[in-house]
Amino acid sequence: MARKCTICEHEKVEEINRVLIEGASLSEIVSKYFGITKAALFRHKKNHLPAKLIKAQEIQEVAEADNLLTQVTLLRDKALSILNKAEQAGDLKTALQGIRETKGCLELLAKLQGELQERTEINILLNPQWVSLRTVILRTLEPYPEARLKLVQALKEAEDNAVN
Ligand SMILES: [Zn+2]
């Protein structure tokens, strides 16, 4: 049967843990807090403190992730509002930039929310570089309508396949 830990049950356990982490010596702590022994402190430091630290770190990480999520959400809202304004003003270049920014935020949000589950596959069709390259290719082919049409059809097929 496990012995009760006088440190874990101590009313000042949080404080004792903190001074332990800060590197205070066991005798120092024993002399400072009522009703604890060096042996109990040693056992607590060895067996209980690491688990507490891991837990504290997890809580911290969850808090940080939450915080990040809030920040990205704010960023997304901002990008969306810029996008709307640019659209209304007919500033298509800025609007495009806004779409890109918004898309980045949404991806990050999805990732943070675990929806992407860290999938490593990259969808090239959603890649902004591909989108602009695609535009360049199609524009270059404008003097050759037949070839252009064929390319558009082939691309459409490829994109449909990739989506389904
Ligand atoms: Zn303990």
What does this structure look like?
The chain is mainly alpha-helical and 164 residues long. The chain has seven helices and no strands. The chain has three domains: 1-47; 61-119; 122-164, no CATH class. Helices cover 73% and strands 0% of the residues. The radius of gyration is 29 Å and the shape is elongated. Mean pLDDT is 79; it is low at 116-120. Zinc ion binds at residues 5, 7-8, 44, 48. Residues 5, 7-8, 44, 48 line the site of zinc ion.
Mass-distribution shape: elongated
- Largest sheet entry: none
Low-confidence stretches: 116-120
Our Rg estimate from Cα atoms comes to: 29 Å
Strand content: under 5%
Secondary structure tally: strands: 0
Approximate helicity band: over 70%
The mean pLDDT is 79
Q: Secondary-structure element sequence?
A: HHHHHHH
Helical region count?
7
Name every ligand kind in the structure. zinc ion
Q: What class would the helix/strand composition place it in?
A: mainly alpha
Distance between the termini: 59 Å
How many domains? Answer: 3
